[in-house]
Amino acid sequence: MEVPDGFSPPNKTPHIPLYYCMDNTLIYTAFFADFGPLDLGLIYRYCQDIEELIRSRTNGLPVIHYCSNHPHKRSNAAVCAIAYLVKIFIFITKFLSIFY
Fold first, then answer.
1. Average pLDDT of the residues of the chain
2. SS3 of 19, please?
3. pLDDT in tens, 3-23
4. 8 Å CB contact between 83 and 43
5. What is the 3-state secondary structure (H, E, C) of the chain?
6. 37: cis peptide before it, omega within 30°?
7. How much of the chain exceeds pLDDT 90, in percent?
8. Residue 100 and residue 54: Cα distance in Å, rounded?
9. To bridge 26 with a disulfide, which of 5, 22, 59, 82 should be the other Cys (CB 3.0-4.6 Å)?
């Protein structure tokens, strides 16, 4: 990639998004040879963690959720992210139903 002539980075402090990884904090306790999905308590904790991180970002920068390439970690991370999106969707539809 080439940098255009005359390009200089902005003088402001660089805006860095917050990266969040749950691989080592939310760990599934296997019952046998399974890998998940995570139980509801861990999913609830994930949702609370994400909401706290989003509220703490007063500058409007994104929170980026990432995980390792391990298939079990990726599937559990996807379940958590989808559960959070469902929670937000339910909240928004209940909020909007007040006006209709």
1. 79
2. strand
3. 455 555 555 555 778 888 888
4. yes
5. CCCCCCCCCCCCCCCCCEEEECCCCCCCCCCCCCCCCCCHHHHHHHHHHHHHHHHHCCCCCCEEEECCCCHHHHHHHHHHHHHHHHHHHHHHHHHHHCCC
6. yes
7. 16
8. 28
9. 22
